[in-house]
């Protein structure tokens, strides 16, 4: 079957709720244009999942769209989690598609490089961070709840952060980002209680800083950005394979595990 025909079949199959005709499982990943999100897309696709890879601007997400063009089990959709009309429209488009894993990955990530410090807070930006990292996440989860509940795996995987753990605070850095992730944790810990009776497992995960570009294995160290070089030196960057381990973790956790906040390797984190 030629590539264009099989892609057309995947899009049609997903839209009419027949992903199992092509793949055993379906994942929707938010924020797939780069970083962890793009790495999740590639690893899920390599495992044979049907992948709905969402990003805010497919036109500028050239690596993602090029990857999808080469992989028949990946479709790209536009999604900004703060654009409720867009979220609703996408949920409607896929209303007959069971989604095994809703991977809420897309966020404003400012932990290590944040100019938002106490005494110099940009409150407008703080508000935007909360809109994206907290409110948009729940809106998206609620919009896709029926899709998840109709699936086999029934999982909502929420990408939080070590920085969102109140019990782990050791410095005053990145307060707005930390606050957004702490709020996210509470929101989804309670959401987990709300939906567990439907068998839906809401899993809050701290993904760590993953070497999504596989800089550690590059043959040309000059391509490594300075901040990543430093992180590699101090051992603060997790290898690219960590994304696959997180998929294994999500696969393995069940509704009984929703009381835990898990690090990427499964280690329990203090909330
Ligand atoms: N990397 C880390 O150090 C680290 C550590 C702990 C937790 N995390 C968490 O892991 C997740 C991924 O991080 P990352 O390092 O891959 O971040 P990243 O490279 O900055 O990528 C963030 C992604 O989120 C998307 N995004 C931003 N605003 C959005 C919105 N309103 N709606 C939908 N998508 C939006 C971005 O899309 P655009 O391309 O359109 O901007 C981008 O694809 C985040 O939740 C982050 O907080 C990361």
Topology:
Blueprint (H helix, E strand, L loop, with lengths): L2 H13 L10 E4 L5 H12 L3 E6 L6 H9 L3 E5 L5 H10 L7 E4 L18 H21 L1 H5 L5 E5 L15 H21 L5 E6 L19 H8 L8 H11 L8 E3 L4 E2 L2
Parallel strand pairs: 1-2, 1-4, 2-3, 4-5, 5-6, 6-7
Antiparallel strand pairs: 7-8
The chain binds NADP nicotinamide-adenine-dinucleotide phosphate (NAP).
Structure write-up:
With 271 residues, the chain is of the alpha/beta class. The chain has a single domain (3-265), classed as Rossmann fold, CATH 3.40.50. 41% of the residues lie in helices and 13% in strands. The protein has nine helices and eight strands. It has helices at 3-15, 35-46, 62-70, 84-93, 123-143, 145-149, 175-195, 226-233, 242-252, and strands at 26-29, 50-55, 74-78, 101-104, 155-159, 201-206, 261-263, 268-269. The protein has an eight-stranded mixed beta sheet, sandwiched between helices. Strand 1 (26-29), helix 2 (35-46) and strand 2 form a beta-alpha-beta unit. Helix 4 (84-93) packs parallel to helix 5 (123-143). The mean pLDDT is 92. NADP nicotinamide-adenine-dinucleotide phosphate is lined by residues 30-31, 33-37, 55-57, 80-82, 105-109, 111, 132, 136, 159, 161, 207-209.
Quick rundown:
By secondary structure, the protein is an alpha/beta fold.
Q: What is the CA-based Rg, rounded?
A: 18 Å
Level of helix content?
40-55%
Ions, cofactors and other bound molecules: NADP nicotinamide-adenine-dinucleotide phosphate
Structural class: alpha/beta
**Which range does the strand content fall in?**
5-15%
Please state the second-level CATH architecture: 3-Layer(aba) Sandwich
- The CATH first-level class comes to Alpha Beta
Number of helices: 9
**CATH topology assignment:** Rossmann fold
What is the approximate shape? Answer: globular
Integer tally of domains: 1
Overall pLDDT confidence: 92
Largest sheet, spatial ordering of strands: 3-2-1-4-5-6-7-8
**Overall number of strands:** 8
Q: Name the helix and strand elements from N-terminus to C-terminus, one letter apiece.
A: HEHEHEHEHHEHEHHEE
For the biggest sheet, the summary is: 8 strands, mixed
- In terms of per-residue confidence, which ranges show pLDDT below 50 for 5 or more consecutive residues? none
